[in-house]
Amino acid sequence: MSPATSRAPPSACALCRSDGWRLGVGIIVALASGTFLAFGVYEEDLKNRLFFLGPRVNETDATHGRAQSETEALGTAVDLGDYAMHPLIGLLHDTMGPSYASLLAAVLAGGGYLGVSFCVGPQLGRSSASLIDPLGAALFMVGFGGGLGYMATLFHNSLHFPARYRSLVVGLLTSGFGLSATVFSLSYRLGSHGQEPTPQFLGKFFLIWAAVLALVYVMSAVVLRRPRAAAPAKPGGPELEPLLINSTDVVPTAGDGSTSASKSSGGATGGGSILASYRRTLSDPAFWLLAAPFWLAQGAGLMVTNNLASIVNAVDQGSMSARKDVTLELAVLLSCSSVVGRLVAGLLGWLLHGRLPRGALILAGSLVMTVSQFAFALLQCDSGTSAVYALVVATGWSVGLLWTVGAVIIGEAFGLANFGKNYGLLAVGPGLTGLAFNTFASEVFDRHSQLRANPGDGESARTCTGSECFQQAFFVTGGCCLVGTIVAFWLVPRTRVQMLKGG
After folding, report:
1. Exposed, middle or buried: residue 335 (CB in 10 Å: 0-12, 13-18, 19+)?
2. Which residue, of 17, 96, 469, 477, is most buried by count of CB atoms within 10 Å of its CB?
């Protein structure tokens, strides 16, 4: 396009006036989409409701072991619904379009919380461990629906905002998603007044959230069907072209906001098979240059998240209640620092658009994660928890930054036609690497732990103190993140080409 016919991108104020309401709705959707991440807040209450007539009534060792294992299986069902299903979520989104995907998200997430309300509400009249399977299915639906609804608003806003502002928009959306679990947790704590929740409260609480999620996703479906006020971008325009590989572009059609495919110059047609679409992405070196540092760093971050209590117990010799308080503070700090990282990535991508390659932010996030993992490995018992606080902040910041930049690069580098499938491939990786790192960390912990009696309740539990409890695991994750950082060096020049072509 010649300079005479090119148009300058709209100013931020003009964009807020014309499309700010879209972003506002998108942030609300993002705030509702990550509630499944707060499962740990009510996990213990679900166990008490399903296996005991209140907190620990008529508990036996065998019952406790079964209750713990099956309640942990519920958490696995939540994770499977989102992380493991991301490729399918992306496929459904790209096939149905964002509007119908939002309607399906309303059915899945709203129906899921409705099922949870039925399983734990007062209508049961007593505990019933036989409801573990339907409860797991309901929580799976919540995770699946949340991921699908979030995918729809992420795609829609990436499509409707110019490339100059896309990083900021994605940063705000991912920040909303990161805050979702905090909003859910606060509402749960405030609603229960910090006390043991009754079946009446549990039933009403999840019923209210079922209605909230259904309403939010239906609203999202209506918004995504509305056409943009300005004229839609033409097929093959610089806003929609894939910048690293050829792909089918997607443009909004008039009237209903649905999507249609058009062939880019040299790109593949929209009629290609689903497997061919996946194969094109997985066979491109650019995807692996992004996936390697992203998957390894995010997997290391998940290992820290899932083992906060063990880390605190290993380095802090204070009382049990004090260690629990520290663990809670670290969990909140990790969430807040992740949100800050998402916002920082969005702001930097916006303010330095055209000057800072996206890959440089991936490199920065991977490098910070590498340093924090090796620092975790070098912690000693006498170092206390002060160093842990600083390292948790670094870990959360890296995790948040990488989620924002990863989503932006996927849309810019591979085109928006297959955004759902491509983002799904990227997002499924942290679940796999996190599972591998957590499994290894558990083995290291068990190898150095001892079975000790707790004089307070007569039970025995495995405890481990000292740096050896996690040192080997963090050296391994630090080494993996170092490999990812090295790979990220090759990603920077690729995204510099992207910047020159699309900036």
Report:
1. buried
2. 477
Top mean-pLDDT range of 272-286, 339-353, 373-387: 339-353
Amino acid identity, position 354: G
Contact residues for 458 (Cβ-Cβ < 8 A; gap 6+) = none
Rounded-to-10 torsion of CA 160, 282, 369, 349 = -20
The listed range with the strongest mean pLDDT (12-21, 176-185, 362-371, 466-475) is 362-371
**207, 117 in Cβ contact below 8 A?**
yes
Judged on CB neighbours under 10 Å (0-12, 13-18, 19+), 23 is: buried
Total residue count of the chain as it appears in this document: 503
Determine the Cα–Cα distance for residues 348 and 346; give it in Å rounded to an integer.
6
- Please report how many Cα atoms fall inside a 13 Å half-sphere around the Cα of residue 448, on the Cβ side: 17
Determine contact, residues 138/203, Cβ cutoff 8 Å. no
Element (H, E) at 151: helix 132-160
Element (H, E) at 450: strand 450-453
Residue type, 101: A
Q: Give the global pTM.
A: 0.77
Residues 6+ apart with CB under 8 A from 215: 106
What per-residue confidence (pLDDT) applies to 246? Answer: 36
Q: Calculate mean pLDDT across residues 8-36.
A: 78
Write out the two tokens for 433: 């690497």
238 closest CA partner among 2, 478, 46, 477: 2
pLDDT winner (highest mean) among 107-111, 333-337, 430-434: 107-111
Element holding 260 (H helix, E strand): strand 259-263
Q: Kindly list the distances between the CA atom of residue 267 and the CA atoms of 84, 412, 503, in Å, as whole numbers in the listed order.
A: 29, 15, 20
CA–CA distance, 150 with 26 (Å, rounded to integer)? 8
